[in-house]
Specification:
heterotrimer, A alpha/beta (427), B alpha+beta (522), C alpha+beta (164), A: 427 residues, alpha/beta, Rossmann fold, Ubiquitin-like (UB roll), de novo design (two linked rop proteins), four-stranded mixed beta sheet, 8 strands, B: 522 residues, alpha+beta, Alpha-Beta Plaits, 3 domains, 16 helices, binds iron/sulfur cluster, binds FE2/S2 (inorganic) cluster
């Protein structure tokens, strides 16, 4: 059994009162903050987090401690923390669970991060479609102020810090870290050229650390229990607990917490398997951006390295289960409608290419495509993919991966649409 | 200082130099749409793809405009990888473009047309319906916008926001519906707005002033300078059919960088206007009668000579060139012995970017040559202290006081390019030229010397101002050189501020030069 | 102004907006949170409000327009008192979002993305990209309420409850 449940990130979630500060404190909440402020220096926090090798849970898997270490030393500017709670990758809802049910864990993580990086201000960028999470966080912020965990001279120390919720307003690309920074500054959510990276020049042109909600929610555990306790969980590639979002054609969709590296196949079984007793067609394992996996490819460990070796990504760990009745062409049309709609429009290849690919697949779905269109679809996607070379951010890659992998793995289904001049799945 | 290799050639550059700039230093041109040396880097068009030679990279191509030169870097601008990446981007740029070059104003100056020919795929694979966007939107009286031609490089947006400091243009919507727009009920109002037309690499922003007047490839361009204020922005004068069709800014690092103001840009219609002086006139029985230029010059000289010198005043316009001012002053001082010379000051509103409050283009030059602002002239005429007035290159039609004083003069001689109300009062009118018809130098507020070049011949019998002035001096037996260059040499010998400047330098580099004496210390 | 008194911010929102501005080192950063409040309060963002907001935050009307048109939760046309976002992205799509959309449109008598509100001004509807409620697919977000696991049978009831 490779599914090892953990009870860290969503601890106490089953309780009605899980979001209250009383409940959080009763579960050793804010102990890490107290320990950090009273016993540890900021560098020691950074070192402990680095030792724990918390890989970024926003999708890219970059180690948080290393990122914090990139902050320029001796710069006479404020440092900011920007917590990425945009959670708009289709199929992903783990951060919402944390914010709605365990907001104090995130706040404690933010406060620890601020202390470690020398920041007095943190913004949690919550997408506009999450009013519940925003309200939950604001309530928690008020509670933390009342109890002296936030504000001036926290717990009687010299550390002062404010955390604010900043609302998004409907734009997937604001989940990209620099798009998010543009949005916090009150602009269109345009991702920025890198370099400079946010750690050097981010929010308001000051050094800024960007981390995902789940990433930061791991920090209290690492500080309270120590990096070794964290390293004892998960895999060597991806230590620690991990939230998995399961949705689609599955009996028991939901947000599940296991040690990182959970086996995808077992996870599916744990969730009751494919709904209605149907057969599995495939799984999109890491949010809509991920390359699709076929049924014979799902016996894989859900950590960053194993997923990459399996030809996909762990991404946001948003797993969308597809049953045998799913039309892959329709699915790609839906995905490309999403990406074309969400392209911020800056870069020529992404702006024009996602729209083009969407039009091609729409035609194929309608039975008006040709065999050449299938190759063209793949090539167009291949032409806008490019890991930062072709585009400013990875949204274009996120659109290219499903496109290329669906065409590669389900080519016969595309061809069937062309041959029949209609969708074979719909009578 | 990093040393890198581009297309097999080594170059050492200053830290912070980008690959696109380093390549340019080597004479290697990397195509670009969004990048412009005067704007912040946006890196959005993605056309400037180059290959970074490094076997470890899965995707070796990246954009040159945001790539900082690194020591030991090896760049290929023309490898198969780079060419393919560029062609891919080009294809994306063109899929939703209307490709209406035959009716587009930009044709001939369009980098989309140019690069697609050089770097594109052979034929289009795009068979879908194109995205439709706004067409023929007036951003202002002068600037119109075609959303379908726009490639969203954001040069125009960045210019207004970052260079002028007025974010009047914005992007609206997103993805392939993104467009450039002005605010609801707003418009492009900044005094530099028309630079966006030059910046626009395609025909999306066009000038209502120039639109459809001429295809650009029929235009002849003459490097010159704007004479509408004391900044002297470097321009190209575009001409066709003996008319000025447009002024466009020309790069000059010291004076105007890449820009000019709208007022200066549009201030050329007077060159083509109907009130231009094509002939010399003399006053006869209350009427202006046409005469030959030589006769008019002779008569002017004679009139001037008859008056006691202490009653003579000379207005030398600070719109004239250094050379013209120099000869005019020489004539008035040495030949006529005028009691005073001065120029008419012109003050308007200035800003801290380009527009100078001093609307005389050559007030600085005039000052260096020894002509300062005229003071109390109307009163002096009224008081009978001035009985004869010679005006070189100016008029004061709207100055009621001066106009009213003219009746008290014994005579008035005017050299100008148009038949102004002032000129109509003259006893002798000498037909001169505008900035567009002459050669010469002017000195801007900061002391940079620029050169004007003739884009057009003088109309009808009109003559270059220098010829008219030489004619007057000739009447008194003074021989002066008959070229602007010759006069400049004479000037440089006489006026110390110009001593170290060679005329050839101003001309050859199309660059302003200055000596310490001329350039302000700050 | 949305409610036409010509002052920005409106009196009843001034203190709140000043509070939002105070969270940031630069005023413009308050733009999106304030626009969200305006949208909520008045169901649309008017040109007058954009101008007023630009002056209030030391930016330009064009900048504000660029932002308003970038984010899908802002509308320049007046939405219904209750605005429904119906998720149409992958997980919801494969669990029947399209069918729900037609049902909602039919029952409310208003089309998604038309920018229109129902005749009584009560409702408007748009499809939205993934709402992050995928475990409850198909789902909608109405005002600040998430409703999940929607079956066609529930549509009438949802509308009735919103009518109140
Ligand atoms: C198109 C796009 C969308 C993204 N969306 C999110 C998101 O919704 N939430 C998130 O945490 N990271 C998202 N990311 C990743 C962020 O850019 C960034 O890597 C992350 O927030 C860093 O935090 P982490 O290191 O803690 O994961 C997105 C990236 C891209 C390219
Ligand atoms: S890749 Fe797409 S979403 Fe990302 S910056 Fe470029 S255009 Fe915008
Ligand atoms: S109008 Fe011209 S300058 Fe402006 S974004 Fe479009 S193509 Fe670029
Ligand atoms: S700033 Fe002065 S010199 Fe430059 S274009 Fe304008 S008027 Fe002409
Ligand atoms: S010129 Fe480099 S990306 Fe546009």
């Amino acid at each position: 059994m490779s599914l090892k449940p953990t009870n860290i990130l969503l601890r106490g979630m089953e309780k009605e009162s899980s979001a209250t500060i009383e409940n959080y404190i009763s579960e050793d909440g804010y102990k890490a903050l107290e320990k950090a402020l009273k016993e540890m220096k900021p560098e020691e926090i950074v070192a402990e987090v680095a030792k724990a090798r918390i890989r970024g849970r926003g999708g890219a898997g970059f180690e948080a401690g290393r990122k914090w270490g990139f902050l320029p030393k001796g710069v006479d500017k404020p440092v900011y923390l920007a917590c990425n709670a945009d959670e708009s990758e289709p199929g992903t809802f783990k951060d919402r669970h944390i914010m709605e049910h365990c907001p104090h864990r995130l706040l404690e993580g933010c406060l620890l991060a601020c202390y470690a990086i020398g920041s007095k201000t943190g913004y949690i960028y919550v997408r506009g479609e999450f009013p519940g999470a925003q309200q939950s966080l604001w309530r928690a912020i008020d509670e933390a102020h009342e109890k002296g965990y936030m504000g001036e001279k926290i717990l009687g120390t010299d550390f002062s810090c404010e955390i604010y919720v900043h609302t998004g307003a409907g734009a997937y690309v604001c989940g990209e870290e620099t798009g998010m920074l543009s949005s916090i500054e009150g602009g269109r959510g345009h991702p920025r050229l890198k370099p400079p990276f946010p750690a050097v020049e981010g929010l308001f042109r000051c050094p800024t650390i960007v981390n995902n909600v789940e990433t930061l929610s791991n920090v209290p555990f690492v500080i309270h229990e120590g990096a070794d306790a964290f390293l004892a969980l998960g895999t060597d590639d991806t230590p620690g607990p991990k939230l998995f979002c399961v949705s689609g054609h599955v009996e028991k969709p939901g947000c599940y917490e296991f040690e990182a590296g959970a086996n995808l196949k077992e996870l599916l079984e744990h969730c009751g398997g494919v709904w209605k007793g149907r057969k599995l067609k495939g799984i999109i394992p890491g949010g809509a951006s991920a390359h699709i996996l076929k049924p014979d490819e799902i016996d894989v460990s859900m950590d960053f390295g194993s997923m990459a070796r399996a030809g996909s990504i762990l991404g946001s760990a948003g797993m969308i289960v597809l049953d045998e009745t799913t039309c892959i062409v329709e699915l790609l049309r839906n995905a490309l409608e999403f990406f074309a709609h969400e392209s911020c429009g800056q870069c020529t290849p992404c702006r024009e290419g996602t729209g083009w690919a969407k039009k091609i697949v729409t035609r194929i779905e309608a039975g008006e495509g040709t065999m050449e269109d299938i190759d063209k679809l793949w090539e167009v996607a291949d032409n806008f993919e490019g890991m930062g070379g072709k585009t400013i951010c990875a949204l274009a890659d996120a659109a290219a991966w499903p496109t290329k992998s669906y065409v590669e793995k389900f080519r016969d289904e595309f061809e069937e649409h062309v041959r029949l001049g209609r969708c074979p799945m719909k009578g | 200082m990093p040393t890198l290799t581009i297309d097999g050639r080594e170059i050492t550059v200053d830290p912070g130099t980008t690959v696109i700039q380093a390549a340019e230093e080597l004479g290697i041109y990397i195509p670009r749409y969004c990048w412009h040396p005067g704007l912040k880097i946006a890196g959005n068009c993605r056309i400037c793809q180059v290959e970074v030679v490094n076997p470890k990279l899965k995707f070796p191509c990246t954009i040159a405009c945001n790539l900082m030169c690194g020591d030991g870097m090896v760049i290929e601008t023309d490898s198969d990888e780079a060419k393919k990446a560029r062609a891919d981007v080009m294809e994306f740029l063109l899929i939703n473009h209307p490709l209406d070059c035959p009716i587009c104003d930009q044709a001939g100056e369009c980098t989309l047309q140019e690069f697609s020919y050089e770097y594109g795929h052979d034929k289009s694979r795009f068979t879908e319906e194109k995205v439709h966007k706004s067409k023929r939107v007036q951003f202002s009286d002068q600037v119109s916008f075609d959303g379908e031609r726009c490639i969203l490089c954001t040069r125009c947006v960045r210019f207004c926001r970052d260079v002028v400091g007025n974010e009047e243009l914005c992007l609206v919507e997103r993805g392939d519906h993104e467009e450039i727009a002005v605010a609801n009920g707003g418009g492009l109002t900044n005094p530099y707005s028309m630079n966006v037309i030059d910046l626009c690499p395609v025909g999306a922003l066009t000038s209502s002033d120039f639109r459809f007047k001429s295809r650009v490839w029929f235009l002849e361009e003459t490097p010159s300078a704007c004479t509408s204020c004391a900044r002297n922005c470097a321009v190209d004068i575009g001409t066709r059919w003996d008319k000025v069709m447009r002024l466009k800014p020309r790069e000059n690092e010291h004076v105007n960088k890449w820009w000019m103001c709208d007022e200066g840009r549009l201030n050329y219609h007077y060159v083509n206007a109907a009130d231009r002086l094509g002939y010399a006139y003399v006053q006869q029985g209350g009427k202006l009668v046409r005469t030959s230029v030589d006769d008019a010059v002779a008569m002017a000289h004679e009139l001037i000579g008859k008056l006691p010198a202490e009653k003579l005043y000379g207005l030398i316009s600070a719109r004239l060139t250094n050379e013209e001012i120099f000869l005019a002053k020489r004539y008035l001082d040495q030949v006529a012995g005028a009691a005073g010379v001065g120029f008419l000051p012109r003050i308007g509103e200035g800003d801290d970017f380009l527009i100078s409050a001093d609307r005389n283009p050559n007030a600085r030059g005039a000052g260096l040559i020894g002509v300062s602002a005229a003071k109390g002239l109307a009163a002096d005429i009224k008081a009978g202290k001035v009985k004869g007035l010679v005006i070189f290159g100016d008029s004061f039609d709207h100055d009621e006081e001066l106009m009213g004083a003219l009746a008290d003069l014994d005579f008035l001689v005017v050299m100008d390019y148009r038949l102004s109300e002032t000129a109509k009062q003259a006893d002798v009118i000498l037909p001169g030229v505008t900035f567009a018809e002459k050669e010469g130098s002017i000195t801007n507020i900061d002391g940079w010397v620029s050169k004007l070049n003739p884009a057009l011949p003088p109309p009808a019998e009109a003559r270059r101002n220098l010829d008219l002035l030489a004619g007057l001096l000739g009447r008194a037996g003074q021989d002066v050189p008959d070229t602007a260059e010759g006069v400049f040499r004479l000037l440089a010998e006489t006026v110390s501020a110009f001593t170290d400047i060679s005329y050839g330098e101003i001309f050859a580099a199309s660059r302003q030069v200055a000596t310490d004496a001329v350039v302000k210390a700050d | 102004m949305a409610e036409g008194n010509g002052v920005f911010p409106p009196d009843n929102l001034k203190a709140e907006f000043d509070g939002i501005v105070a969270r940031y080192p630069k005023k413009t950063a308050a733009l999106i949170p304030i626009l969200m409040r305006l949208q909520e309060e008045f169901q649309h963002i008017t040109t007058e409000d954009m101008d007023g907001l630009a002056a209030y935050l030391d930016t330009t009307p064009a900048h504000v327009l660029g932002v308003v048109t970038f984010y899908t939760m802002f509308s320049q046309k007046k939405r219904g008192k209750h605005h429904i976002y119906l998720c149409k992205t992958l997980s919801c799509h494969i669990r029947g979002a399209e069918e729900l959309l037609s049902l909602f449109e039919e029952k409310l008598g208003v089309k998604a993305h038309s920018g229109d509100a129902s005749g009584d001004g009560e409702f408007s509807i748009d499809t939205g990209e993934c709402l992050g409620l995928c475990e409850q697919a198909p789902c909608v977000l109405v005002d600040d309420q998430a409703i999940g696991n929607i079956t066609p049978e529930m549509v009438d009831q949802i509308i009735e409850e919103l009518r109140g």
